[in-house]
Design goal:
The structure holds two protein chains of two kinds.
Chain A: H1 7-35, H2 42-61, H3 69-103, H4 108-130, E1 145-149, E2 152-155, H5 156-178, H6 180-190, H7 192-197, H8 202-228, H9 236-249, H10 254-274, H11 280-294, H12 304-307
Antiparallel strand pairs in A: 1-2
Helix pairs in contact in A: 1-5, 1-6, 1-8, 1-9, 1-10, 2-3, 2-4, 2-8, 2-9, 3-4, 3-8, 5-6, 5-8, 6-8, 9-10, 10-11
Chain B: H1 2-31, E1 37-44, H2 51-69, E2 80-87, H3 95-104, E3 108-112, H4 117-129, E4 133-136, E5 152-154, H5 159-173, E6 178-183, H6 187-202, E7 206-211, H7 227-238, E8 242-246, H8 249-261, E9 267-270, H9 277-283, H10 285-288, E10 292-295, H11 304-317, H12 325-342, H13 348-357, E11 359-361, E12 366-368, E13 381-386, E14 389-395, H14 396-402
Parallel strand pairs in B: 1-2, 1-3, 3-4, 4-5, 6-7, 6-8, 8-9, 9-10
Antiparallel strand pairs in B: 10-13, 11-12, 13-14
Classes of the chains: A mainly alpha, B alpha/beta.
């Protein structure tokens, strides 16, 4: 009974959240694929994208009220700005927090600590520079109901997220499957040493992987900020959820991260149709544990090299 | 040449300064020998994320002291007053140090503050041991009055008072039969909405209650901001004509946006945690307009007395009077009023004793304290966002009467 009530509006909200999770989760999964470690500073890549998008939109929009084609262009511009911001920070992270450790063949825990340190540094820096209060993204479009599905209203914001995310996911899938860069990533993921013997520049591939993850994470930061505003702590929960989604789908598996993100977003939202809101995370993580008990490597299994 | 001037000039200036300083002290001690000097201190956040709220109060305390010294508020006083301050950043970890510093300063006879409930709870044992009276303009946690601190006073109603008055306002002034209540899982928000719910039942108003933890988009939150979308859908389908949010402006702004985006057309209402211009700027004008916000604090009224206070405050502080400014002014003045009645017998202990019996007509209300330090005669004020400005509509009681 409770499940059927508002089912469609919860599902639509869940899908939109899921797309965001998927975009962020890909950053974790790509890096895990090539380095077998979790980039815990990815939440700050997400945050940087949010701020980059915010500053660019603020400068462009000013006090105007864009609509129509302008809105579409502004969303594309903001997403691009977020992607550039995210990619820049992700690349810097690789150079400053990871590569020196890799050169010295540091143990895996050192990478973890280095990432956590970088994360603290970045979000505190953002808090100091950009203020501690959340700021709203200037309105690039007027949010309203675009169409209804079985009585559930689909807002402009959801449509924006879905379209932007689908385009990016498709392009990424093609890049990994069919380009030289993708081949490099898959080769390093499968067997780094052999790949380097075959002439693959490992450092370059790793840096490019970080940049790819940063593009998606930064764009997600902008899309997230469109409705929720940007603030220095914004990366924390979405990134944690996305990490969960990556594990759910099978860490290191690109399509797994997409699937995991969507499923987590939907589960979370549908869970609270029956239970009170504070059960949201309990339900989501309960399902995660169940899935992992049945399939310890996630829904689609591990390994970037094999399945993509 | 220049060096010569320096060689002679520097010692000369030094001598002149020394003479001047001593001369000044000597003069002061002769001309005011019968007039002792006492210090009223203020403790609150002066730095950190909550500094603005603390500054709203700091300058009110300074202004009250300045006016008292000028004989403006109480006529000629038999003593001179001084101002001192301690910054506790509104935090429970900083406030004991601040309290210790005030207690050991023997010229401090009473304290306005601490401003925040958590800070008050941590500092009050130290003040209490020293028998140093504290009058808080803004600490609203109900439990503070139950700790048995004889020196604790506050000039605002506590959170327990606010909830029931809000409920009565919903039931009797707005005349609604059902509402949706949401708290932010903080001790402040859940306590307030709990009290609201109890009173709603008593008033015969049906309600649905949900908890949505404050998010990491806002300070000290743990929740995920995306919870608001799903919750908003539930509020919409409940068809409740009013949504009450117990929490702070940052999360309320996000939730309000989600509600309007989901197509919720009902009335939005919140508490003093949302009484902040940031609510309007973050929720955007179209969303925030017509939101009702209640507070135990009152805005300055548009009368001559308040106007002169408002002007003087702005001159001193450099910004306009804000949340808890009038309360801080009253808190300081109630202390000065009992000091005046004590005349030449001003001690820390005597002030505590006298405050328990004090009656003072302030700019926010007539201040009398109950034995536990709570202010008696609780008044809750209703505000509304009108064209982006937060304006006071009146007290809940007067609004119920006139409806």
């Amino acid at each position: 009974m409770c499940f059927t009530q508002n089912f469609w509006s919860f599902l639509i909200g869940g899908i939109a959240n899921g797309f965001l999770y998927a975009l962020i989760a890909l950053g974790y999964t790509l890096v895990y694929g090539v380095l077998q470690l979790i980039n815990f500073a990815h939440s700050e890549v997400f945050m940087s994208g949010g701020f980059a998008g915010y500053f660019v939109l603020n400068a462009v929009i000013g006090n105007s009220h864009p609509s129509g084609v302008d809105s579409v262009l502004l969303v594309i511009l903001g997403t691009a700005a977020g992607a550039v911001g995210g990619a820049t920070i992700a690349y810097l992270l690789e150079r400053v927090a990871y590569r020196p450790l890799r050169r010295r063949k540091a143990p895996r825990l050192a990478f973890l600590i280095s990432a956590i340190g970088a994360s603290y540094f970045l979000y505190n820096l953002a808090g100091k520079e950009f203020g501690r209060n959340a700021v709203s993204m200037p309105a690039a479009y007027t949010n309203g109901t675009v169409f209804t599905v079985f009585g559930a209203q689909v807002q402009t914001y959801y449509v924006v997220i879905a379209i932007a995310a689908m385009i990016m996911l498709l392009v990424l899938d093609r890049i990994v499957a069919a380009t030289r860069l993708g081949r490099g990533i898959r080769a390093v993921a499968q067997d780094a040493e052999t790949a380097s013997l075959m002439g693959v520049n490992i450092d370059r591939v790793i840096a490019q992987t970080f940049i790819l993850g940063g593009i998606l994470g930064g764009a997600a930061g902008f899309l997230f900020g469109l409705s929720s505003g940007v603030v220095y702590t914004m990366g924390f929960t979405p990134a944690l959820k996305a990490f969960t989604a990556a594990v759910l789908g099978g860490i290191g598996n690109i399509r797994g991260a997409m699937l995991g993100g969507l499923l987590l977003g939907i589960f979370e939202n549908l869970g609270v149709t029956c239970a009170p809101t504070e059960w949201r995370d309990v339900i989501a993580f309960g399902i995660l544990v169940l899935v992992l008990i049945i399939r310890p490597t996630g829904i689609l299994g591990e390994r970037l090299g094999r399945s993509a | 040449m220049h060096q010569k001037i320096l060689r002679i000039g520097v010692p000369l200036v030094a001598v002149a300064l020394t003479l001047g300083t001593f001369g000044g002290v000597a003069m002061a001690s002769t001309s005011h020998s019968s007039e002792p000097t006492y210090t009223i201190a203020y403790e609150g956040p002066l730095s950190g994320g909550n500094a603005q709220l603390g500054l709203n109060m700091k300058y009110a305390v300074e202004l009250a002291i300045r006016w008292a010294n000028q004989g403006k508020t109480f006529g000629k006083l038999p003593f001179k007053l001084q101002y001192a301050e301690q910054d506790d950043q509104g935090s429970a970890t900083e406030s004991p140090t601040a309290a210790e510093a005030l207690v050991t300063n023997s010229s401090v006879v009473a304290v306005v503050g601490p401003a925040f409930s958590g800070a008050t709870k941590a500092a009050e044992p130290i003040f209490s041991a020293a028998d140093l009276a504290t009058v808080s303009p803004s600490a609203t946690n109900p439990q503070l009055a139950d700790e048995g601190w004889n020196n604790f006073f506050r000039v605002v109603a506590d959170d327990n008072a606010q909830g029931p008055y809000d409920a009565d306002y919903i039931a009797k002034a707005l005349k609604l039969k059902s509402v949706y209540t949401v708290d932010d899982a903080s001790s402040y928000g859940s306590g307030l909405v709990g009290a609201l719910d109890t009173r709603l039942t008593h008033d015969g108003v049906k309600f649905t209650h949900q908890t949505a933890p404050g998010t990491t988009q806002c300070q000290a939150g743990t929740g995920n901001v995306q919870e608001y979308g799903a919750l908003a859908s539930q509020v919409v389908s409940s068809k409740a004509p009013l949504l009450f949010y117990g929490g702070y402006y940052c999360d309320f702004a996000l939730f309000a946006k989600a509600l309007r985006a989901a197509g919720y057309k009902g009335q939005l209402m919140s508490d003093d945690g949302s009484l902040d211009p940031h609510y309007v700027s973050e929720a955007t004008l179209t969303v925030a307009n017509d939101t009702l916000i209640t507070c135990a604090c009152s805005a300055l009224q548009n009368n001559a007395e308040d106007n002169s206070f408002g002007t003087a405050f702005k001159q001193l502080a450099g910004f306009a009077s804000g949340t808890y400014t009038p309360e801080a002014f009253d808190a300081t003045n109630v202390i000065i009023s009992v000091m005046k009645s004590l005349g030449s017998h001003v001690t820390r202990a005597a002030i505590v004793k006298a405050l328990h019996k004090a009656t003072y007509v302030g700019i926010t209300k007539t201040i009398k304290f109950e034995t536990n330090g709570n202010v008696s005669g609780k008044t809750i004020y209703v505000y509304e966002v009108e064209k982006g400005k937060i304006v006071e509509l009146g007290s809940t009681l007067s609004l119920i009467k006139s409806s």
